[in-house]
Design brief:
This protein is an alpha+beta fold. Helices cover 57% and strands 11% of the residues. It has 10 helices and 5 strands. The protein has helices at residues 2-25, 31-43, 52-56, 59-89, 93-111, 113-127, 138-142, 166-169, 211-217, 219-231; strands at residues 148-154, 178-185, 188-190, 204-210, 238-239. Strands 3-2-4-1-5 form a 5-stranded antiparallel β-sheet. α1 (2-25) packs across α2, α1 (2-25) runs antiparallel to α4 (59-89) and α2 crosses α4. The protein is elongated, with a radius of gyration of 27 Å.
Length: 240
């Protein structure tokens, strides 16, 4: 009976895993990442990767993760209790020998050179299925070096860029260690001719490059932004 209960409970756990994989997928998380993170959260392994930030940085995913952690802790207690009962009541020497024999058989098979060769090819094929850049945290994509910076610069009337083009304020910008990724104007993203586009109040300019260069070139605009956002009790979206 205990063994049957344990089997049913494992089916429930599997179903919960698949349910939450679907829920994570609905938040635009890739299938491979979703399944790995769901299992990691449920088992409470504490396995830490850059992918975990995809969960922590999303409010809905955090709530789902909270449930999985709690459910995983409860499930672990149930499983340990059930296994303990089985070991104390039903397990005999013969079953132990069967289990040991199965483990040794798997070990012997894995020692075969032909099996290792096939598994190596299989694993290399899996490695080709890399995670897309869109599924990685911004820090992993852009912040590969200590001096890298990603700045979301808010423009106000007091800003030096207000009602001007970037190329008018910063000369020889093509030779400097920074690049403007896009200009956010309301719900519109401007990607074409951005260095020759007149900047409006309320625009947000996403800039990537060397920290010292960005701090020097946009020093006044950054100070104005920080003061304005501080007054309105907002925090600038920037990565250091």
């Amino acid at each position: 009976m205990n063994l049957f209960f344990l089997l049913i409970y494992f089916i429930i756990i599997t179903a919960v895993i698949e349910i939450f994989v679907i829920l994570f997928r609905l938040t635009d998380l890739k299938l491979e990442v979703s399944r790995f993170q769901v299992i990691s959260l449920m088992t409470g392994t504490g396995f830490t990767t850059g992918e975990s930030e995809l969960i922590l940085g999303h409010p809905v995913r955090r709530k789902l993760a909270t449930f999985l952690i709690l459910f995983g802790a409860f499930s672990l207690a149930v499983i340990i209790s059930s296994i303990s009962t089985i070991l104390s009541d039903d397990l005999q020497t013969k079953e132990i020998l069967y289990a040991a024999g199965a483990v040794l058989l798997v070990f012997a098979i894995l020692k075969l050179k032909i099996v290792q060769t096939k598994l190596t090819k299989l694993f290399k094929q899996d490695l080709k299925q890399n995670i897309e850049l869109g599924d990685l945290p911004i820090r992993d994509i852009f912040m590969s070096e200590k001096q890298d910076q990603l700045l979301n610069l808010h423009i106000y009337k007091e800003s030096s860029l207000f009602h001007k083009q970037i190329n008018q304020v910063i000369h020889d910008y093509e030779q400097l260690e920074f690049v403007v990724l896009f200009i956010l104007r309301g719900e519109l993203k401007l990607r074409k001719n951005i260095y020759h586009t007149k900047i409006h109040e309320g625009d947000q300019i996403l800039i990537f490059g060397e920290k010292d260069v960005i701090s020097k070139l946009f020093k006044n605009d950054i100070q104005i932004m920080e003061e304005k956002l501080k007054d309105s009790q907002h925090t600038p979206v920037s990565e250091h």
